[in-house]
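Field: sequence (string)
Field: structure_tokens (string)

Example rows 1 and 2, in order.
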Amino acid sequence: MDYVENITSLVGNTPLIKLKEVSEITGCTILGKAEFLNPGQSVKDRAALSIIRDAESKNLLEPEGLIVEGTAGNTGIGLTVIGQALGYKTLIVMPETQSEEKKSSLKDLGASLLLVPALPYSNPGNYIRVSEKVAKEKNAFWANQFDNIANKMAHIEGTSQEIWSQTNQKIDAFISAVGTGGTLSGVSQGLKHKNKNIVTVCADPYGSGMYTWIKEGEANASGSSITEGIGQSRITKNLKDALIDDAFQINDSEALNIIYNLLKNEGLSLGPSSGINIAGAVKLAKQMGPGKTIVTILCDYGIRYASKIYNIEFLKSKDLPIPDWL
């Protein structure tokens, strides 16, 4: 009989999808790794499983223990779904500015949810800092996705190896945005270990300092973005020693136009961070020239952000493009 024992077996091994329109426009083969097909419907399931397994190996998690994490949403969903499959509970600390869909999803999935004001990391009220404090108070395990390198290891050992195999070792470049840094740093490290000539690039939304950090050596943020879970100005432990060759800045309009076209013409429903990634892949393809194979991450489903990206009033208030079917 053909079955899996536990949903943890379904994390990873996601397919690559050729993104037809952007491939045709650029003359390159632009491939998206379909991370929305993980059990918790995002790339963050990889980090969640790796962090939990690492904690178990170090005896940091008791049976039926509590996992506490500060997250923009997807890592919290991953920790909750995978944690429950392995017998753990979760308490998630999230900035109150995140989408209503993510908030309700976490509560519906059984997580305890603590919403806090959106404050910079330097402020003790920042969601990451609060999660560390709550974990100590409750004598719980703090997942610490930003500085726990089990996050990056999931992509060194998993994602990068899958991409290398799926492209028949014929990949020219990889590009993605930075949230914690785990995906870009881990995939870059894994791929460059296979072939040092593979180009690795950051696609950065406005309001983030990754672009200037990579280009100039100092993280200086400017502007703003509606994207969630990506873009920051802190050099996390997952980002230290990252092998990143270049960076592009992407605005929200570019990202939204891409995800609206993908849904309308290719049946792919993706969130804004995937739009940032694909827009970056287009810029990279134009810079590298035709005939290259470029891989990026399709992070999660667009429906997780419906109250923003499919909300006419919200889009108008931000002077952003509106899909014609609305």
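Row 2 begins here:
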Amino acid sequence: MTGILGKKIGMTSIFDEHGEVIPCTIIEAGPCFVTQIKTKENDGYDAIQLGFEDKKPTRVTKPLLGHFERAGIPPKKVLREFKGFDVSNFKLGDVIKVENIFSKGDIVSVSGNSKGRGFQGVVKRHHFGGGSVTHGQSDRVRAPGSIGGSSYPSRVFKGQRMAGRMGNKRTTIKNLKVVQIIPESNLLLVKGSVPGHINCYLEIHKESK
């Protein structure tokens, strides 16, 4: 498996050769720069660290600034490791573009942080059915109900589904099909939706068919 970093631009729809509408997500995939190469001899495993999207040098710490200077590239906002590359074919500062990895018809998995929904109740967060609206109950419609008896177990079990913060968790959508690549704009169009809001950063991994 190989992959690339990208940014979610939005959603659109295109027509295939049969005239059917395909809803798809537009991802600005790359160009990514090789910022570090890890090998089994030095690190215990083979991997390549990729950097994506420029960042102002004034907003980078000195150790990280030296990290980018060794690679001979400007500072990057996002750094991620990818396994599966043949590390012997790369050197620091190499550029990886979307057309170097993906082609039309490939199957990919896309990982990113899901949209944050804030503090939500159990009905929205866990799809609880809510309480009865009869027999005089007026304020129990969206309540969670009992969370543990007082005599037994006399406590709330760990993992009990309750209200709380919802979303903003790392999510992966698998088996997405690449429907189009626009190399001159570094755009990758995949069928269906991907996690996160517009302009969120994504990891796109190529899956074996």
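free_text_note (row 2): The two ends are 11 Å apart (CA to CA).
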